Amino acid sequence: MKRKAVYDSPFRQFLLIILALFLRELKTRFGQVRFGIFWTIAEPMVHIVVLLLVFVFIRSRMMPQVPFELFLITGLIPFFLFRHIVTGLMTSIDANKSLFAYTPVKPIDTYITRTILETVIYVVIFAIIIFGFYFWGGIDVRVSNPLGVLAVFVIIIWMGFSFGVLASILYNIFPITKMVVSILMLPLYFLSAIMYPLWIIPSQYVEYLKYNPVLHLIELFRTNYFSHYPQTDGINIIYPLSIILCVFFVGMYFYRVRRFALAAR
Prior knowledge:
Blueprint: H1 2-7, H2 10-31, H3 36-55, H4 59-62, H5 68-90, H6 92-96, H7 107-135, H8 146-173, H9 177-190, H10 203-209, H11 213-225, H12 238-263
């Protein structure tokens, strides 16, 4: 009886559902598109190569404290992860709506699965690029504070999940949300200090940039990665955490209210 209880436990059933959805997402992402894995890795790599070519003549003047290649990757990967989690969760209901005919499968399961998938993809991409910088570029890729980097990385995932759930619910009500989110991601990319160090921006403009929670997390990621990274006044973990908590609870509240409508969409 005990073994049967464990086998039929809700938690084990939840894990099996997540695993099945994860394998399905993998097949959808990579199995139906030729060179799917290549294009997933190529996106951040193309950004890095182009930006390196653009900034090669000024990179040593901009940031003598850290390698410019690592500066770019520690901004691009967190941002791409956040962006892909948000956009992935927003459309996850449509992509898996046929599965909601099975009672155990809930919309929240698709949110969790896509978050895990995007995280795995970008951890692998980050590891490959870091290895390339070390093996072929001879760059010192050591992490100054591994636990700090991990903590900020987890918070970035949580932020993507929170905004993604809210975007999914809004998309369910207002289909134009998908276009709005796609448009907003472009200025957010340029306002998150991914391509430039924050300390070269005049202080009066930095005060406005600080309203962007993504900027705080990217700067904190770099602060923990590099041992001599210049810290900017006003960058802290409290502000982005406050935003994430608000968005998370709002998203979870409206998810609870509309979970049946999402499954029936």
